[in-house]
Write a structure and sequence with these properties.
This protein is an alpha+beta fold. It is 47% helix and 10% strand.
Length: 471
Amino acid sequence: MSGPSNASASLWLKVVRVLLALALSGAVYLAWVSFQSGPVAGCGPESGCGKVLQSRWAYWLGIPVSVPAVFTYLALLGTTFFWGRGFNFRYEERAWLVALFLSVMISGSALWFIFLQAVVLKSFCRFCMVAHSCALMATALLMVKAPLGRRASHPASPKMGGLVLHSPPEIPGSWGVYSALAGLAGAAILIAGQLLVEKQLYVVTSASGIQAPAPAHRLPYYLIPRRSSSNSEASAFSASSNDSRHASRPPLAEDPNNANQPMVQRTGPLQVSIHAGLFNYGLREAPLMGSPEAPHVLVSLYDYTCNHCRDQHLRLLNIQRQLSNQLCILLLVTPLDSNCNPVVNVRLPESVNACDYAQLALAVWRTKPEAFAHYDEWLFQPRRPVPVPEARSYAAQLVGANNLERALADPWIFRHIQTNGYLYRTNYLKLKNSVLPELMIGPVVSFGPLNHPRAISDLLAEHLGITPCPP
């Protein structure tokens, strides 16, 4: 009959299986989200999990790390069912060797990912951390219980009426060392693959072949509209319009004849049209990098609280300086904050001050355009946004406190942010992507950070026929 020791052995094994099942569930969910290209439940695009899952470290050799994690957790969970069920002890010894190999590999990989989140990204993904924590506890318990040079404490076999009919497995110490070393090698392969092969984090989407907009239930939760509207609403939006604070959402152009036209077109010497006239911006009526007379125009949508936007903004600044009078970049600050952006449905914790930074930057531009480039670059210099009072104080130094307050009260700022928000939502409805930063270049839009060194240069050469000179 099974005694106390067998009951104890059975208990730890059940704990291991439960922990591995939890880790497996988390990995399956994250893998599903990756293939669906959808948002993680409860995580905005600039949340901790958003930053982690949109980083290069969320991929291994171009595939989401959650995919190999699913198979690894599943394999380790499977080995635990070879113990105490009447199998030949040699099979059980082999299962222990496989379990030791997988445990060391999983532990090393989990510690690597925790290090990346804590030290490199300085952000944590709650789903990832739950999976890593459960996996670490399960593998630690398995390594402690591994019968290296001793007989394993053996659960009673239900198939044999509670009796163990063969000797428990015993793994020679040298075999255990080899198995552990193989596990370390597996973790090293994972780390090397991430260091040597950087995943392309951006998607370039063309206007050709655009279909009807996605239904409302397909929108990311933070973009669900707060009020319904019809696609037959009348007029196109203009950045210089006099619409009220409660202006209707602009219509969506669905004319198939426009599908192959550039999404960004110059319609006059100082005018840019986006989405076939749905949005119109005067190049002297919005912040720019470069000269408004430049023959080529890019449109950049960004948020001052977005880490990827910060990196890309600096790359764009360098590209524009190289091209000088050939290129200007229309800077459309698009805070993902429901306090000022009418298409954002919730206040995301990580973007809670996004409206303040956007309004201060636009107030500086509205009051003293020549000071905007300096203030814009200053806001983006730290890895994390400066406190709002510090940003306000510095803006007041540049343009004067009274001038700043008058500019902040100007309704143009709200209308401009509102229009940028509608453009952001229209891009999602048309192109099925909502990742910032967005860069509109002729007939294409890039979503996400252009993290490859020549990514922006290649897009400019392909779609505008211009190539930056190396500095």
